[in-house]
Amino acid sequence: MGKKGIFVLAILMAMITNVWAQDVPGNDDTSKWQFRLRGIVVTPDESADIETIGGDASISTAVVPEFDISYFFDENWSLELILATTKHDVEAVGTAAGDLDLGHVWLLPPTLTGQYHFTGGDFVPYVGAGLNLTLFYGVDEGPVADDVDYDTSIGYALQGGFDYMLNDKWFLNLDVKKLFLNTDATVNATTALGATVGADVDINPWIIGFGVGVKL
Q1: I need a labelling partner for 125 at 20 to 30 A (CA). Which of 21, 34, 78, 211 fits?
Q2: How far, in whole angstroms, is CA 107 from its chain's centroid?
Q3: H-state helical runs in the chain
Q4: DSSP β-ladder status, 98-108 and 56-59
């Protein structure tokens, strides 16, 4: 991870720690903590600018569980930390060397969003925006490349969804997020292609989740 990635991660953790450490004044009837467990579909809206050989990127969809934690300052405003990890197959397609299987990579994208909740009944819609830090790990280079390296990504996140209250404590949740996620990838394909190729890759996934939550 580069210095910039470490700095942003430190800021995110400091914000979370500060929230945990404070007893923020607000409505005594408002539960300050919410926890959700969702199943999510992560669908990249990918594109790439690949040096030398041209072409584009193809990145697979992933379906995984996701856990998130929310802290409420009052009944309307909250912070949410979103935690999940996904595995994606990667290809360079339509290049001068044909379609190239670049194996797979795991993404760890902790995302912190500020949310506004529209209260007034069992149906509670919300909107949110925040920061995303994506770490790439567990890279399998596939049959073509000798090595593939992905730079840590820092970007923005937009969010919308709703909670549907089943009772005072338990609720259902539907959530949609858009992450603006870009990475510089370096493919060492010296053995197969006689070159090292760089690429500017936009992943920009849509994340659609459905799950259950609890207020504490």
Answers
A1: 21
A2: 8
A3: 3-21, 190-193
A4: unpaired
Domain count within the chain: 1
How would you write the pLDDT of the chain (216 residues) with one tens digit per residue? 445 555 555 555 555 555 445 544 444 456 899 999 999 999 999 999 999 999 999 999 999 999 999 999 999 999 999 999 999 999 999 999 999 999 999 999 999 999 999 998 999 999 999 999 999 999 999 999 999 999 999 999 999 999 999 999 999 999 999 999 999 999 999 998 899 999 999 999 999 999 999 999
Query: Are 119 and 75 spatial neighbours (Cβ–Cβ below 8 Å)?
Result: yes
Q: Which of 80, 67, 75 is CA-nearest to residue 16?
A: 80
- Decide if 31 contacts 72 (C-beta within 8 A): yes
Per-residue tokens: 76: 């309307």
Nearest to residue 35, comparing CAs of 173, 177, 209?
A: 173
Q: How many CB atoms lie within 10 A of CB 104?
A: 18
CATH code of 105's domain: 2.40.160.20
Give the CA radius of gyration of the chain. Answer: 20
